[in-house]
Design goal:
The protein is built from no helices and 11 strands. The protein is mostly beta strands. The strands form 2 sheets. Strands 2, 4, 5, 6, 9, 10 and 11 form a 7-stranded mixed β-sheet that branches. It has a 4-stranded antiparallel β-sheet with strand order 1-3-8-7, with no helix packed on it. β4 (30-39) and β5 (46-52) form a beta hairpin.
């Protein structure tokens, strides 16, 4: 079993910054894809940023403001969010595609962390 634990959410004024982190623990052989998603009230969960190998993908809303990074040795992924806007308010979820062996892999989600940006 694998657990994901997120940290770093909170309340910030528009224009401010937050850094989210997510750490994976448990039966991990390797981690392929790591990413951050978010879900605002009444909306579907959407991709914010993901990193797979050396490839990084950002949602248009995140480009130029958010930076995703990973530490393979620590099984962590972080999201630096700058120039935050009220429309960034959402629950942010960490997602990892974890290989528990050479053969088996599973997608795991963190419990979510609330980010609230006040105007």
């Amino acid at each position: 079993q694998v657990q994901l634990v997120e940290s770093g959410g909170g309340l910030v004024q528009a224009g401010g910054s937050l850094r989210l982190s997510c750490a994976a623990s448990g039966s991990i052989f390797s981690i392929n894809n790591m990413g951050w998603y978010r879900q605002a009230p009444g909306k579907q969960r959407e991709l914010v940023a993901e990193i797979s190998g050396g490839t990084v993908n950002y949602a248009d809303s995140a480009k130029g403001r958010f930076t995703i990074s990973r530490d393979n040795a620590k099984n962590t992924v972080s999201l630096q969010m700058n120039s935050l806007k009220p429309e960034d308010t959402a629950v942010y979820y960490c997602k990892m595609v974890v290989h528990t062996s050479r053969t088996f892999w599973y997608t795991y989600w963190g419990p979510g962390t609330q980010v609230t940006v006040s105007s």
